[in-house]
Amino acid sequence: MEQQSQSLWSDAFDRLKKNKLAVISGIVLIVLIVLAIFAPWIAPHTYSYQNLELGAVGPNSTYLLGTDTLGRDQFSRILYGARVSLLVGFVATAVALVIGVSWGIVAGFFGGKIDSTMMRIVDILYGLPFIIFIILLMVIFGRNIWLLFLAIGAVEWLTMARIVRGQVLTLKNQEFVLAAQAMGVQNLAIFFRHILPNILGTIAVYATLTIPQVMLLEAFLSFLGLGVQPPMSSWGTLIRYGVESMEEYPWMLIFPGLIFTITLFCLNFFGDGLRDAIDPRSSD
Question: Which residue, 75, 144, 173, 224, has most beta carbons within 10 Å?
Answer without folding.
Answer: 75
